[in-house]
């Protein structure tokens, strides 16, 4: 899938407003709070989010949720939801998802 500027704009505003989102990613529904949006070292658009609900493809979602890196071009049907903002917990690894930050939740 290509980058949807509508999705990018929704995610960007959700980061600024500290709002949670629901979207489809890799054929599965995801509920997440976006924390950081920008590009990776290769120029791809990514969002670092704390996924607290929905489904996963690779590893099960830990109790309480976990950090996920989503390629913005692979997200579809991105909408704000009415769930609370999930601040998540401290990263145990360095952030390699977003190298050049456009917006970050404060």
Give the end-to-end Cα distance, rounded to a whole number of Å. Answer: 30 Å
Using DSSP, what is the number of strands? 6
Please report which band the strand proportion falls in: under 5%, 5-15%, 15-25%, 25-35%, 35-45% or over 45%: 35-45%
Shape: globular
Helical run tally: 1
Sequence stretches where pLDDT stays below 50 over 5 or more residues: none
Class by alpha and beta content: mainly beta
The radius of gyration over CA amounts to 12 Å
> What's the pLDDT, averaged over the residues?
91
- The ordered string of helix (H) and strand (E) elements is HEEEEEE
Describe the biggest sheet? 6 strands, antiparallel
Helix % is 10-25%
Kindly give the count of domains. 1
Descriptive key words:
106 residues; mainly beta; 6-stranded antiparallel sheet; 1 helix; 42% strand
What does this 3D model show about the protein?
This protein has 106 residues and is mainly beta. It has one domain (5-104). The chain has 1 helix and 6 strands, in the order H-E-E-E-E-E-E. The longest helix is centred in the first third of the chain and has 13 residues, at 5-17. It is globular, with a radius of gyration of 12 Å. The mean pLDDT is 91.
Protein topology:
Blueprint: H1 5-17, E1 21-25, E2 28-39, E3 45-54, E4 66-71, E5 75-80, E6 100-104
Briefly, what is this?
It contains one helix and six strands, in the order αββββββ.
